[in-house]
Design a protein that fits this description.
mainly alpha, about 90 residues, globular
C-alpha cells in the first residue's frame, strides 16, 4: 500500500544548479496558496552561481514573504510527513 502525504505539494524543477532552495520555497509557498516565482524568491534569497543559499537564508526569505518558520535539526522523514499531513 502506497502512503501519501496529505499536503498538496506540486513538484517543480529548479531552473539553475544553485536555486534548489528558491525552488523548494516556491513549492512550499504554492502548497500554502501563494504562487511566487522562483526568480522573485531568489532575489530575496540571494543564491548565485558557486554560492547557493543556507538554512538561515531560507528562514529569512520565508519570513520576508510573511511565513513563520522553525528550523528543526535533526529532522526525520516521519516528522516531516506528520507535519505535512497536518498542513504545517
Amino acid at each position: 500500500m502506497k502512503k501519501e502525504a496529505k499536503a498538496e505539494v506540486e513538484p517543480r524543477r529548479q531552473r539553475t544548479q544553485y536555486t534548489c532552495m528558491a525552488t523548494s520555497l516556491a513549492m512550499c509557498f504554492s502548497a500554502l496558496g501563494h504562487d511566487i516565482p522562483e526568480d522573485e524568491i531568489n532575489k530575496v534569497l540571494g543564491a548565485r552561481a558557486h554560492h547557493g543559499a543556507g538554512w538561515e537564508d531560507a528562514l529569512n526569505t520565508a519570513q520576508y514573504f510573511g511565513k513563520r518558520c522553525v528550523f528543526v535539526m535533526p529532522c526525520t522523514i516521519e516528522q516531516l510527513k506528520e507535519w505535512t499531513d497536518a498542513s504545517i
